[in-house]
Each structure stands twice: as structure tokens, then as C-alpha cells.
Amino acid sequence: MQKLQILLDKTGSIVHKNNQLLDATGGRFNLFQIIGLTTAETRLHSALITELLDPKGSHGLKDKLLKAFIRLCLEDEFDFQTENARSKSEHYIGVKTNTTGGQIDIIVRDNVNQAIIIENKIYAGDQEYQMLRYHNHAKNYASSRLIYLSLDGKLPTEYSTGGEMIDCKVLSYKIDIINWLTECKQLAVDFPLVREAISHYINLIKQLTNTSSMDEMNKEIVAMVMQSPENIQNAFELEKTLSDVKVKMQWEFWKQLQKSLEGKGLKVKGEDDSKYVKHWKIENYYKKQRNRDTHFGLWVEIYNQDGISLHWGCEIESNIYFGFTIEKNGKGGISNDNEFTSFRQIINECDERYNQTSWDWLGWMYTTPELNFDNFNSKAIFSLADKSNLEEITNQIAEKAVSDIAYVTKKISEIHKTHELV
Known about the structure:
The chain is α+β, with helices and mostly antiparallel strands and 422 residues long.
């Protein structure tokens, strides 16, 4: 144990030295972080990639960046006519059904009816039949490539493919997009504004994918570990415990959050709720390679009348988020139905920061600070090891829950009195 502690101390010294270097050189400065767009799939990631892929984009590099993408990311013979191609984000392909329609994140089309279709996943979960619908849409083109892009290169779920075999290319930000952007940066060497924007974006992706932007620090740690066989053995012993550390820290978060919620008078639904957080679900979250457990958490029923029930909930996908859901006769995924406009309006009036684009949520938002238990690489996450910080953050979530639930239930009561609700 003493030798393990020495290894940790030496690693800490290297990290501290490089953090000082970052502070001294402005290495932490990132434009996208400053303006709060780090995880904005549509406003940042899809928009920027779409612009770079467009031969007529404002970058001025014509089709060089698109050619690089095809060569590096598709790795096959695809005679795509890049010179006259155009890209578009949020491309509407019709009313959504189980097999057709929806909105494609990024599409690039050429003048001979060929297309590159990209489903872009940062933290959002798969939508039902999403990749199946895009796969079917791809059949409208003479030739096409369907891409599923995520932070770490995960496969689309059966929920998205409908259980069917989907011909798609799986790409990751961590490897494929960083490699492509690195070449884009070289191609933009004589375009300083474009080059610096790409540099900021590469650094952001490295942070989102838990990839150190300090290559020299990594080399120094590797050199230190390789100084002796004993150091290597100790490093591997530490690695074995990391998933257990993650499980324990997330479990402690949920236990403390439930304590905070109940301490403020909220009744949390327990074991009989299928989405209730359990220790084995957290273990699967970190230890399963495919179809791991997500979307579990804590739930409080705040309204139930005439078959309509509302819940406040806090759950996890990659980040922790919370908000309000609605069910009719026990069926969810109906939040955007027209008959629930009154409920959505109440949530928006309660706090306009609630995101209302999901069929599963009347409104949801990330915690402040954001807690990404997937990447597990932020000061906010690390701070949860301190019990006082853990209590402070969970109390903030609980206080927000109490305040918003009080507002929503009061408004529902007022509307009931005037018989205007549903």
C-alpha cells in the first residue's frame, strides 16, 4: 500500500506541474467552453462539422476538408463528387413514423444523387427506430454512407435500429474526428482564423472524450511508471480498482440525493419503480460493454388524476439531468402530444431553461455544475469525494426540485379551477 501511495504521489506531482504550466501559458482557454456550448449537439458540434464539410463553407478551403473526411473516416471506395457537394444540418425528411421520417443531424449531398448521412451523438440517447428510419431514407440515393458518430465509437442500440441489421459506419470523436480535424488544421495552415477555431475544437473534444491535451504530461507519467517492473505492477493494480471507484462514487451520489430529497419532504418512489437506481445497475453502467444500463435514477410523483400522472425525476445517461415527465394510463413518451400543451407551458413558465425537445420529458436540464459520470473526468465529479461538496450539490438539486414542484403543482391546481387543463 505504501508503494502504491508513492506512485500516486509521483503522478500527482506530474499533474500539478503540468497544471501550473497550463495556468502560466493560457492552455485552459477555450472559446467554446467560455460561451457554454461544450455539449450543444446542434448549435456547436453538428453546426461546426457541417460547415467544415461544406465545399462552399466560409472556411474558404473548398472541398479539401470534405475529401479528407471521406479518405480518413470512410476508408472505402466512394466516388463522391465533392466539388459540387453541399452540406446541411437538421435536415427534415418527413413526418416521423416507425420506419420513415425525422430529422437528420448532418447530411452531405452531391450533384449525382449521393449522400453522406451522419447521426451525431454527444450525450443524447438513441431515439426509437432512429437509425432504422435513416437507413430507409438512405435508399433514396444512388449511393450513400450512413454514419453513427459518438464520443467513444459505441454501436447504435437495438432501440434505434429496431432490432434490424443496419449497414452503417461507426465513428468516434475520440479517434476518427480528432484525426480528421488534425489534418484539417494542417490544411488550414494559411487560414489562421480557421486553424485556430479548429484548434479550440480539438481541445474541447479531447476534454469531452477524456483524452489529455497534455501529451508531454502523458509521456512523463508513462516514463515514471516504466522505471521499474514494480511500478508497472502497481499501476495495473490501480487500474483494476478504477471501475469500482466509479461505482462507489456514483452510488454515494444517489444515496445522498435521495436523503436530500426526502429531507425536504419529497417522497421518492422505491424498489417497485423500474427506473429506480440500484447498485447492480451502476455496476452494469461501468462494466457492461454493450447495452449497458442507463436512464435510472430517482422519481417523485407530483400529480395523478384521471389517468394522467406527472413525475419529477433525476436520472443519468452520461450526465445527470432532472425535470418533469408525464404519463397517460401508465404510458410515457407522450410529452409533445398536442393535448399536453398546457403542461408544457407550465414547465416553460417555471424555468425557461428546461429543454422541451424530448418526447420523454415535459422539460429537462443538466445539473449545475454538470456531472458527467460517464467520462468521469472533471473537477465537479472529483469534488464529490468530499462529503461536504457532495451534500452541497445534492442539496442544490433537492432545493430546485422542491421549488419547481411547488410552482408546477400550484399552476395545475389553478388551471383545474378554471377547467382549462386537458
